[in-house]
Amino acid sequence: MPLTIAQSGVQSIIHEIHGRDETKRFLESLGFVVGSNVTVVSEMGGNMIVNVKDTRVAISKSMANRIMVA
Amino acid sequence: MSIKIALAGNPNCGKTTMFNDLTGSSQYVGNWPGVTVEKKEGKLKGHRDVTIVDLPGIYSLSPYTLEEVVTRNFLINEHPDVIINLVDGSNMERNLYLTTQLVEIGIPVIIALNMMDVVKKKGDVINVKKLSEALGCEVVETAAVKGIGSKEVAEKAYTMAQTKTRTVPQHSFGASVEKAIEEIGNLSRSFVPSEFARWYAVKLFERDSKVLEELHFTKEAQDQIKATIAACEAEADDDSESIITNERYNYIGKLVTKCLHKKNPGMTVSDKIDRIVTNRWLALPIFAAVMFIVYYVSVSWLGTIVTDWTNDTLFGEIVQPAVGSWLTAVGAAEWLNSLIVDGIVGGVGAVLGFVPQMFILFFFLSILEDCGYMARVAFIMDRIFRKFGLSGKSFIPLLIASGCGVPGIMASRTIENEKDRKMTIMVTTFIPCGAKLPLIALVGGAFFPGSPWVAPAMYFMGILMVIISGIILKKTRLFVGDPAPFVMELPQYHIPGAKGVLIHMWERGKAFIIKAGTVIFVACGLIWFLSNFSWSMQMVEQDQSILASIGHFIAPIFAPLGFGTWQAAVTTVSGLVAKENLVGTFGVLYGLADAAEDDPAMIGEFAALFTTVSAMSFMVFNLLCAPCFAAIGAIKREMGGWKWTLIALGYQTGLAYVVAFMIYQIGSVLVLGQAFGVGTAIAILLLAGILYLMFRSYKPKSEQSLKGARLEA
Questions:
Q1: Where along the sequence do coiled-coil regions lie (chain A) (predicted)?
Q2: Would you say residue B413 lies in a domain?
Q3: pLDDT score of B513
Q4: Of A42, B92, B112, B402, whose CA is between 20 and 30 Å from B594?
Q5: Are residues B181 and B127 in the same domain?
């Protein structure tokens, strides 16, 4: 499922990141890689704050939709 | 021998703090990623031959935003002798991702394992020895904030540069990737310098466009490289860049499990605060309340108390009479007495009187920046700004601009999308900066005494203008398209250090005091001269002065806005030099420094020029129109040329004119009960025009921008 519908406070694992562009690369350098643990900290109108590799990263809805977690 | 040592690392990991510690300088440190947008150089304390270079933070050597390009170009093209790689010990996994790339460049690397104070406080244990062996470079534990270890790292880096120690990367990729990299290495050998061979091979494998541009391969070699990459991609069923990224993270993951023992995972304090502060219902009210309190306290409440004292008592009752009587006592000529007392003390004093108020504002802004809230505001505002075609990242420049527009405009560099960036630069100075504060305080004090909302209202009006501009500009050909997706790291909250906040407040406030002593000093002297002499160099009444004749010439332009007097006209123009002059010039013309805001004489002078409505129009025009020369210079630098600078200035002044016109024309009818006239009709038409520009549906003609518009709708 996309990260946007992940429940907040529950840890899940990234299994795919859609797309193939600059932004995907930037997400990867921030720690969003397949196999990473992610936890949603808070959510606001689709935008979310996510905990990944011990950092909090704020991402917009369109980005969160491209990150598939399980 | 001169040595260059570069500080490199992730954003917000303490590079600038260490830089300040090592060089004794006081570069601005803040708690959000992207504070440093330009490289800064300084000499290492105790070693005149060693230059320390502070670089903007980067997540990887494949740059994403403008300031990251600065860092990469410096590291690759100017080869520093040693790189000090700052690694945030409380966030090793992500930080080491960059480290694995830095060690490949071929420049000696030493690691400063920073924020060890935070790590120890959390109870985590890091095995430094293992880490150092695994990475192939020396690791020194540091806590830059407390000045621990910085000196040691620098000394070691210095020794490394002298002994020419080499750093050999210890990690390797999977067998098939290594094979491909080796093949590419062989193909590119004759095109790249040998010490950078591995770095180039890896970058070529990733299809890095900048590296491909830089090297001039034969068609044949290019095809061979392409084939090698394609073969490897087919095998791994992924693109080459992701293969490398994943391999790096796998390697780091294993390394971190070996070297790091974590005490307790789970929710941190920052996460808990974020649950409240960025909560979907509470976030906006909390933000509005915070900004209201900041402006209310620094302008209306505490600010007024101190400003009244400096203006009325310090300058009005002590300095000005004292200087005046001293000058009379030593027998100075009357004109000199007038120049000094009315011109310089009056003008500069009027500005200096507001300095305490600015300091209070800067104090609050420093706290907001230092504690980590600022970055959250960008996130909170993204949801709203996105609807209007701006990214939440645009909000950081706006918040910084509430201190001063120049660093605000420069902060726009962290915005990756070029259109977003240009638009942000255009609207940044709509937010009232510290120098505009005196004007707000003056008008607020004179026409709306006791009202707590004037200052916060001007701040929120600035935001409103940004939003309206966003909507209108996004529907023009110049800016159409989607704002870039918002991705931003949020720093940990921490209690701001008193020392840091005070230094930051002082650094910002100092600039205003210096300005008062230089630019404004000269400007006030000049205004005094022009307002006391006629074209034939005779001392005359103000009405016959040079300034009056210039003012009379410009004044008709402002007449439709309600302030078509020569005094208001020249004041507005003098604001271009520095916005403090808006008050400084009034100070010279009316001797405001020695007049209390509730002084009937001064109210009389001021009220003769303005009504409540025209005062509001005057204030709004000056808040929104073209900024001071320093900010115009910054706009030109960031826009990269005059064309865009002129577009920006034209838009700002045009909008200021239209808004002030509407306030005056419609306000006169509604508030002052004047008759409905031609001006009112035009104002209503303009209002309709703005609403049309805001709500029209815009269909771009070109195929390319069609996609953006569809997504927007």
A1: none
A2: yes
A3: 86
A4: B402
A5: no
Cβ(B3)–Cβ(B49) under 8 Å?
Answer: yes
pLDDT in tens, B261-276: 887 666 678 888 888 8
A10: domain CATH number?
A: 2.30.30.90
Task: Note whether A58 contacts B62, CB cutoff 8 Å.
Answer: no
Residue B275 lies in a domain: no
Tokens linked to A62: 């369109």
The confidence band for B706, taking pLDDT boundaries of 50, 70 and 90, is very low
Task: Kindly tell me the burial class for residue B330, based on how many C-beta atoms sit within 10 Å of its own C-beta (0-12, 13-18, 19 or more).
Answer: exposed
Q: In this structure, which amino acid lies at residue B610? A: F
Task: Return d(Cα B136, Cα B311) in angstroms, integer.
Answer: 63
Apex B29 CA angle, B405 and A29, nearest 5: 100
Spell out which residues of chain A touch residue B492, defining contact as CB-CB under 8 Å.
56
Helix ranges (H only) for B533-580 are 546-558, 566-574
Identify the domain boundary among B163, B186, B207: B163
Check CB contact under 8 Å for A57 and B242: no
Residue B251 counted as domain residue: no
A65, closest residue in chain B (CA to CA): B485
Region B375-390 average pLDDT? 84
Comparing alpha-carbon positions, the chain A residue that sits nearest to B93 is: A53
- Residues B295 and B233 grouped into a single domain: no
Structural domain span for residue B227: 175-237
Give the per-residue pLDDT at B1. Answer: 67
Q: Which of A27, A35, A47 shows the shortest C-beta gap to B382?
A: A47
Determine the residue among A28, A36, A39, A66 to mutate to test chain B binding: the one whose Cβ has the most chain B Cβ atoms within 10 Å. A28
CA B403 from chain centre, in angstroms, equals 9
Q: Are residues B528 and B662 in the same domain?
A: yes
Q: Which of B293, B592, B580, B310 is nearest to B432 (CA)?
A: B580
A36, B249: Cβ pair inside 8 Å?
yes
Structural domains of chain A, count: 1
Q: Given an 8 Å threshold on Cβ–Cβ distance, is B379 in contact with A36?
A: no
Residues of B with CB under 8 A from a CB of A: 59-60, 62, 64, 90-94, 97-98, 239, 241-242, 245-246, 249-250, 270-271, 274-275, 278-280, 283, 375-376, 378-380, 382-383, 386, 392, 416, 484-490, 492
Size of interface A-B (CB pairs under 8 A): 118
Which pLDDT band holds residue A20 (cuts at 50, 70, 90)?
low
Task: Give the CATH number, domain containing residue B119.
Answer: 3.40.50.300
Task: Work out the minimum CA distance from A1 to partner chain B, whole angstroms.
Answer: 20
- The average pLDDT across B426-448 equals 88
Residue among A3, A38, A40, A42 with most chain B CBs within 10 A, to mutate: A42
Q: For the purposes of burial, counting CB atoms within 10 Å of the CB of B196, is it exposed (0-12), middle (13-18) or buried (19 or more)? A: middle
Query: Would the pLDDT of B688 be above 90?
Result: yes
